[in-house]
Design brief:
The complex is a heterotrimer.
Chain A lengths: L21 H9 L72 E4 L5 E3 H10 L16 E3 L3 H9 L1 E3 L8 E3 H11 L4 E3 L8 E3 L13 E3 L6 E3 L3 H7 L5 E3 L6 E3 L3 H8 L4 E3 L10 E3 H9 L4 H39 L4 H14 L4 H17 L4 H7 L4 H14 L8 H11 L4 H5 L8 H74 L5 H16 L5 H31 L2 H10 L5 H11 L5
Antiparallel strand pairs in A: 1-2, 1-3, 4-5, 6-7, 8-9, 10-11, 12-13
Helix pairs in contact in A: 8-9, 8-15, 9-15, 10-13, 10-15, 11-15, 15-16, 15-17, 15-19, 16-19, 17-18, 17-19
Chain B lengths: L7 H15 L10 H6 L3 H11 L2 E5 L9 E7 L10 E7 L10 E4 L21 H15 L10 H14 L17
Antiparallel strand pairs in B: 1-2, 2-3, 3-4
Chain C lengths: L4 H12 L5 E5 L6 E7 L10 E7 L10 E4 L29 H13 L9 H9 L1 H15 L5
Antiparallel strand pairs in C: 1-2, 2-3, 3-4
Helix pairs in contact in C: 3-4
Classes of the chains: A mainly alpha, B alpha+beta, C alpha+beta.
């Protein structure tokens, strides 16, 4: 370390070599208060001068609970992690080609990099590594805050970096795993006088300090106790044993494991032995055999699938048991009569116990069956009268939402769950330890449960019916009022017309002394007057009139033109007569006819 | 921490570039020393050498793509019989450089223990760095130190110059004389 | 000796989907050291030649550019007698977002379009500027002489 000479392998001019190792870098970026630990590589501290870095501008806001500031303490190199899944190219940092860790985004061009990568890239040139736009560290860079990206990154499945640990977890949980749980994490030796590090699994106070020197049982080499395993693997040459099957030479310590799992010559069974494969051959041949496709593989897969199915069935069985127990409980304490309170109770129950979908699904199941089978039940029939099945589902869902424990947002999902929730013969498996002595008992209890549910549903339907009736009444009330209003308006119009006509008649009578058709006009007016006079009180009549008025709106205008033409041609009499002869002429139409008669004279 | 093992060619390229920079010659090809001497630019050369330290080196043939044959010069250490003398050397980097030390010959005649009087070859056992070269390089490949490289042609020349300094009182052959095989 | 993930990935990709006309194979004992072969681009004086190069990824890669040089003699204004290449992306214009494959593609492009205004071999560049036909002929001759695939 004391050589003064500059390195001969300095890079070309203009490309200054960053002189900081990634570990030191991570430290600089992610935590200033990190204690100096043994994880530091010897070359990590080239100088005390602290350069401004990307992350200096505003402490990195911890994006999720998994990211803490002193992540480097446990030496997790996030860029060296192995991921247990395929990773979308878009999540890869263009510099380290691994998924972003603490991503930073440039404000000017919107490119994203890991904080440490960008930091190191900017050491040499203050430009964006992708498009070479000038970047100001303090101004143009901000943390990536897009939650979608951060969440995706957090959820990436990653393998534990400690050798010997097969743990796979979400990336956000990795730190906690390494820090608290991983047995392979190096921790301080339990002996306070010892500064060495040791695997967590070996760091037990009762073990004491394992950093004592002991001779290797095979090669006599003095070695610290906790280093023995590594020593066997890498260095030990003494007491070698030759594998009796292959030519491998290895430490005797490892021979058993080698024969059990590694030796390519030892005779071994096909891995599908349990499925019936009788193949026994050296491991290398078995590998070949597997590569060519063991015919028992399909069977093994099938058996495995069956195993899984069994597991699911057992689980469902358990759930059903719980459900039935609950139902019985309800039966006992809720009583058959107080169906509504029973349901309240049961939904409270449901909320409390996790497998809460059972009741909902069961009820729906029963509802379905009830719809098809119990049509003879008069009450239910009546309730069902105006309500479709979908309505019921809807109400049911509303009810569930009300209780905040809806597990199925749609009837389809509920139906699917229903199908899954129905085991073939639950009592058959329960005969040993279940609460029922016989199938009959089981059926009885089921029947009781169903009855309670039917009762509940009936209540619900009655309620629904009432709601519908209310709505109908409310709506018709409004309509009635409107119709009455319209009727009165028509009456007022009729009165106006009468008044106008009489005015005209008077003035004409004064001018000409005698009109051409006074008699018919008079009769016309009297008829319309009678009609409008009746509009005030009777709703029924008013409605009828409005109806005809609405339907006759177009025809009235048509007849108006007709009558105009007719009167111009001189046979207005006949047109008028036609209307007078019809039995049910609405006042409005009549008035329009009367008006149609007037214009030639005005 | 793992560190990249720099391959021979790139190590030599870097050394060459360093040598060129040390000489203040920015051009890509290094002028052969003998040409410079023949051109009578000794004074200039001395200035260069004074300026850069005590040693310089470069490729014998600027087109030698394998960079095997090198020349070096040592500015004789002061206060002794080497003062104001310029010693020319030849260095040969084999295919296994830097695992194995370069083979170094004096071109200029010199009276020094460990230097053959027939062909000027420097016996590695007399110069520390050449003697320990293989051991150091093995050590480096196990424990690489990225920021420094104790093994280089320059280091070898400096070590030889230091060795000369230890024997500065020895009488020396006339200045400018060369071993017969290089004449 | 742990190799950074990025180098592993780049190597895997170079092997799995090689760039047409370019091959790069890492040395077994030094995975940062690649033997590269670039085929001379068509319609250039280097057409038909296979040029050997060596490439080394220094410690700081990708923060510093890879080191690369021709091992095959080549008559080109931007390549000096030791095979060193004058290419901006290998020096000041390097960006860590660049990769081995992009660099090799740039070098292939440089073969197709020599740039005598920014020379590394002044004599070659001079000829290239003053007497292009002679230069092209020389380049073709050298290609035939040194870069034939059979060698």
């Amino acid at each position: 370390m004391s050589f003064e000479m500059p390195p001969p392998n300095t890079p070309e001019e203009g490309v200054a070599a960053p002189t900081i190792s990634s570990r030191a870098d991570a430290r600089r970026i992610f935590g200033s208060g990190v204690p100096s630990t043994i994880y530091d590589s010897p070359a990590s501290s080239p100088g005390g001068s602290r350069r401004s870095s990307v992350a200096d501008y505003g402490p990195y806001q911890v994006p999720s609970r998994g990211h803490t500031h002193d992540q480097s303490e446990y030496g997790i190199d996030y860029q060296a992690l192995d991921y247990a899944q395929q990773i979308d190219e878009a999540l890869l940092c263009p510099i380290c080609h691994t998924p972003f860790f603490m991503p930073m985004t440039t404000k000017t061009c919107g490119h994203t990099f890991c904080a440490s990568c960008l930091d190191r890239a900017l050491e040499t040139q203050h430009v964006c590594p992708i498009d070479r736009r000038p970047l100001d560290i303090s101004r143009d860079i901000s943390q990536t805050r897009t939650r979608v990206i951060l969440d995706q990154l957090d959820r990436l499945k990653v393998k534990c970096p400690n050798s010997g640990c097969d743990h796979v977890c979400s990336r956000e949980l990795l730190y906690a795993h390494v820090e608290r749980y991983c047995e392979q994490t190096l921790v301080r030796c339990p002996d306070h006088h010892c500064d060495e590090m040791i695997c967590r699994k070996d760091a037990r106070p009762e073990n004491g300090c394992l950093h004592y020197v002991t001779p290797c049982p095979y090669c006599e080499m003095a070695i610290t106790f906790n280093d023995l395993e590594r020593h066997y693997d890498q260095e030990c040459t003494g007491q070698e044993a030759e594998c009796p099957h292959c030519d491998a030479v290895l430490v005797r310590h490892r021979l058993a494991k080698h024969i059990a799992t590694d030796c390519r010559e030892v005779e071994t069974h096909c891995q599908f032995q349990s499925a019936g494969c009788k193949q026994v051959a050296p491991r290398k041949d078995i590998e070949e055999h597997l590569k060519n496709g063991c015919i028992y593989e399909a069977i093994a897969n099938l058996m495995q699938a069956r195993e899984q199915d069994h597991k699911i069935i057992n689980e469902l069985k358990g759930r059903l048991d719980a459900l039935d127990g609950r139902t019985r409980h309800l039966e006992r304490y809720g009583g058959g009569g107080a169906g509504s309170s029973g349901v309240r109770e049961s939904s409270a129950f449901t909320r409390a116990a996790p497998p809460s979908s059972g009741l909902t699904a069961d009820a729906l199941n029963n509802l379905n069956r009830m719809q098809s089978a119990t049509s003879g039940d008069a009450d239910i029939d009546e309730a069902n009268h105006n309500i479709t099945l979908d309505d019921l589902f809807e109400t049911f869902d509303q009810e569930n939402n009300h209780h905040n424990d809806s597990n199925y947002s749609s009837p389809q999902a509920a139906a699917a769950a229903m199908a899954a929730d129905a085991p073939p013969a639950p009592w058959a498996h329960n005969s040993g330890d279940g609460p029922w002595e016989s199938p009959e008992d089981y059926m009885l209890s089921q029947f009781e449960a169903m009855e309670a549910k039917i009762e509940d549903l009936r209540k619900m339907m009655v309620e629904l019916d009432g709601r519908h009736t209310m709505r109908l009444v409310n709506d018709t009330m409004r309509m009635n009022e409107q119709i009455a209003e319209l009727g009165s308006k028509v009456g007022v119009l009729g009165m106006h017309t009468t008044w106008l006509m009489s005015m005209q008649r008077q003035s004409r009578g004064q001018q000409n002394g005698s009109g051409s058709t006074p008699g018919t006009t008079r009769s016309n007016i009297s008829a319309s007057g009678g009609g409008s006079g009746g509009t005030g009180g009777n709703n029924e009549e008013g409605r009828g009139r409005t109806n005809t008025a609405a339907t006759g709106a177009s025809s009235s205008s048509r007849t108006a033109t007709q009558t105009q033409q007719g009167s111009r041609n001189g046979d207005g009499e006949s047109a008028r007569g036609r209307y007078l002869n019809t039995s049910d002429i609405p006042p409005l139409r009549r008035s329009s006819v009367g008006r149609g008669e007037n214009p030639p004279r005005l | 921490m793992a560190v990249a093992q720099v391959p021979r060619n790139f190590k030599l390229l870097a050394e060459l570039e360093k040598g060129e920079k040390g000489m203040g010659a920015g051009a890509s090809s290094f002028p052969c020393w003998r040409c410079v001497m023949n051109a009578g630019l000794t004074i200039l050369v001395i200035c260069f050498i004074r300026y850069t330290g005590a040693c310089s080196y470069g490729l014998e043939d600027p087109e030698d793509i394998l960079m095997t044959h090198w020349t070096g010069t040592i500015w004789g250490p002061p206060h002794g019989n080497h003062e104001n003398r310029i010693y020319e050397l030849k260095m040969e980097c084999g295919a296994n450089y830097p695992k194995e030390p370069p083979v170094i010959h004096f071109v200029s005649q010199i009276n020094l223990p460990g230097v053959s009087q027939t062909d000027g070859r420097v016996d590695p056992n007399y110069v520390g760095i050449l003697r320990d070269w293989t051991r150091i390089s093995a050590e480096l490949s196990r424990n690489p130190r990225p920021k420094e490289d104790p093994l280089s042609l320059e280091a070898a020349l400096i070590a030889i110059r230091k060795y000369m300094e230890e024997h500065k009182k020895l009488p020396q052959p006339p200045e400018g004389s060369k071993y017969p095989m290089y004449k | 000796m742990a190799l950074p993930k990025r180098i592993v990935k780049e190597t895997e990709r170079l092997m799995a989907e090689p760039v047409p006309g370019i091959s790069a194979v890492p040395h077994e004992d030094n995975l940062r050291y690649f033997d590269v072969e670039i085929h001379g681009p068509s319609q250039s004086p280097y057409e038909g030649g296979v040029f050997k190069l060596e490439l080394f990824l220094p410690d700081d890669y990708p923060m510093t550019p890879p080191k690369i040089r021709f091992l095959t003699k080549i008559y080109h204004p931007n390549v000096d007698k030791l095979g060193r290449i004058c290419l901006d992306v290998l020096k000041n214009n390097w960006s860590p977002a660049l990769q081995i494959r992009t660099i090799l593609l740039s070098i292939q492009a440089l073969l197709g379009a020599p740039n005598p205004d920014d020379p590394l071999a002044p004599d070659v560049a001079k000829t290239w500027k003053e007497n292009p036909s002679v230069a092209v002929a020389t380049a073709r001759e050298w290609t035939q002489q040194y870069a034939l695939p059979s060698q």
